[in-house]
Every structure is written in structure tokens, then in C-alpha cells.
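Lab meeting notes turned into a lecture example. A postdoc, R.K., suggested we walk through two folding results consecutively so the class can see how the record format repeats. The first protein's sequence and C-alpha cells come next.
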Amino acid sequence: MAFDAGLAERLRDLFRERHDVVEKRMFGGLAFMLGEHMCVGILGDALLARVGAEGYEDALHARHVHPMDFTGRPMKGFVVVEPAGFESDADLAHWVERCMVFVRSLPPK
């Protein structure tokens, strides 16, 4: 599956000053890795957001968000944000920051 090139550029702009974020093809889309951990990704035109187990239920209450489910079993700690949920740059930055806070709490691989 292809990923939204425009969303990829918007994410690159947010990560431009960071030297610890790399892009990696994953899930048939594109992932942005902070250290060795996936932070956010793109699948089609949707944002894959890693919010962690503790932030999962809260994230699901946000508008335009649903569980990340590729196999019939939702991946706890990851949500899918539809394009309407990150239409503004501020909304996208909010999701990225939320994911970065969680990923920075993880031990190094």
C-alpha cells in the first residue's frame, strides 16, 4: 500500500531538527523511528500513532481515531488517526509530540 507523500513531508518538517529520527518502510507504509522505536507512521492517508498502553483508551476518545487493527486483533498502544484528525499543522504536531513523549519513556533496544 502506498502512503500519503504530503503527510510524509509534513512529518519530515516536524522532525527536521532531530538527528535521532529515521524513516523506515514498515506495515506497507512509512514509519518514523525515534531511536530504535516506532514513533509515528503513515499507512495510506492515515497517521499511525504510538501512544502506549496507558494512553491508548484516552487516545481512542479523540475524534477521528480508531484502533490499529491489521490482523483482527487491535494493537494495544497504537491508534490510527484519520486525516480529519490532523488536518491542521497544530493537530499533527500534537499527535507527534504525544507519541514522542511515550517513545522517550521506553528503554533503549
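The second example is placed directly after the first for contrast:
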Amino acid sequence: MLMRAAVLTAFGSPLEIRQVEAGDPGPGEARVRIAASGVCGSDLKAIDGHSPVVPHTPVVCGHESSGTVEAVGPGAEGIAPGDPVLIAMNRPCGRCRMCARAQAHLCTDDARLKAIMGLTPDGGTRLRMDGAGLRPYLGIGSFAEYAVVSERALVPLPRDVPLEPMALLSCAVVTGVGAVLTTARVEPGSSVLVAGCGGVGLNAVQGAAVAGAARIIAADVVEAKAKAAERFGATDTVTAGEALGERVRELVPGGVDYAFEATGVPGVLAQAFGATRAGGTTVMVGSPPPGAEASVPAGALFASRRLMGCQGGDASPHTDLPRLVDLYKAGRLRLEELITERVGLDGVEGAIDRVRRGEAARALVVPGA
């Protein structure tokens, strides 16, 4: 079948809305009609040629998405046409050593690793453009009318939740909230710093509020972005660059219990680490550029401070995403407030530009608009 999709044909170039052929779902796969897809910083890195999982073009961009199952392939179980679903970034196998250790986000299954590179288990792709194979970003490619994905990447949604805002759960929300609740396991009454108030950072703020943190400091170099965090539970906001540690210690003498770096900038990670107390924990949530290195004072690390990594909120999609849905239904997660605009496929390039300029916490691409 033919569909419209936003295709990156050359690194650094605007996305082109092209006619793409989407094949029938293969064994264990499903075709999903995309309801909405968020514009994520990871998409921008792919567009700029800075993503290690996008070695060449063309590629259909987009990954943070929700939709409705339209067709299923042979052997697909637990899903049926008409089911509302989230498309998870991760599709763990449930069998490998890492899955057995409850670290599904680090699954080593060959099919999962191929999906990250935009390939099916047999090394092919279900998409074609101009007669040639076309890779979907992270095996999803949701800046399109449809996506053909593994059933393992699909998480069923209740029929009483709105599909469009649900899309944010599959990346920004699970990454930010998961960093707080799953990776760091923030305790009630803790003090928390979130450095970087984009889509992921705002959700780290939400996660800290859900965890019961008593003090939540939101920091960004753009004052309006830091102030926006107040709607999601921040008790204090800081506009600071190099002086971040000093500003934080003015609010919390000795430093915070937990710091979350949500920009992917190594220098910001070092500043966040420097804002923690002895025995405090810093989590790198943002995705760093390939080859980037971070430096922290060894003496500060020796004072029982912890520096941790985090990949996508360290989430297991089939357990963690339903929990986020429950938090949303209980009124403890704000999703609509994260959405700064909705655009159709023809408006995707403008939305990307506004995200680059820091004018949008989350722009939502709605292919049917």
C-alpha cells in the first residue's frame, strides 16, 4: 500500500514528504495506523547525521508514537486489528541474559539490534521508495501514515484514553519519569535537580513529583523553559550556565540528593554532578553525541557520590508503559500540557525548526491532520 511519509534523503537537509510503499506485515509483525508522533531530540540528531543508528539515508524519521493496529502478520499474538497501541522504542526478546536480569532495555537479541538499525530480523525492510528499500528510524519510522513493526514493540492501550497524547509516553515520558523512578529510585522527601527543561527534563520533574520529592529544582539556560517546569511540579527554578552548582547550593546547602542531566551535553553533566551532596546521585538521562567524554573531579566521586547512566528510562515497555498509563488516568502525569503544537505531515519541518530553537517542549505530528 502507498502512504505519505516524512523522509530524510540527505543528512542536514529538510525532510521531504514522499509517497512510500508499506508492505504487508510479516511473521510476528503488525501494520499500525499512526495517530501521533512526538518530535524528539533523537530525531534531530538523526537528521543532522549524528546518530549512530542512522548510518546512511534515506530513512523515515520519527519514533515516539501511538496508533491503531490495522493488520497483523502470521503468528502475531495478543494484538488484533482495531487495537489502540503504543509503539515502544524497545522490543526486548524476554529470553537473553539481560532480559533474564530484568534489564530489558539492554536486550542483546539480534532481532532487536537489527530493529534499532531499521531492519527486520532477516536484514530487510518493509518500506520501499522509488523501487529501493527504505529504513524506518529505530525500526519504527512514525512520521508517516503507517508503520510496520514487530508485535513485541506494541503495548496495548485502554480504549478510554486519548491516543494523541499517549504517544509521548513511549519516549519523553518513559525516559524522564523512568530515570527518576526506575534508575535512581528517588525517595519521598528528597531534594532533586533537573538540568535541562525540554520534553525529557520536564518529565524528570514530573517523575520527581510522583516520587514525593520535597524540593525539585528545574534549571535551564532559557528562563522561560525553566519556569515552564513549575507546571509539572518544580518548587524552584534556576537560570544558570557555569554557575549551576553555586546557584543550587544557595537553595539547598551542601547540594541536592539527586541530579538528573537531561541535555546530553557533557559539560552540563559535570555541573549537575557538582551540584550534589556527598553521597548524592547523578543520572545522565540525555543522549550524548557519539564519542563525547565527560569529566568529573575524582575527589568528589570519592566522597561516595554516584554517577549513573540511563537508557530510555531503563524501561521494560510491557511493564513500565502500562504503569505510566495508570499514573495518567489517576491525574498524576500531565501529558496535554507537554504538547505545544500539533501539525500534520506537511508541517513537520516547521515543527522541527521550533524544537531546535527551544520554542516547543513537545511538538506532535498528527499524520491524519
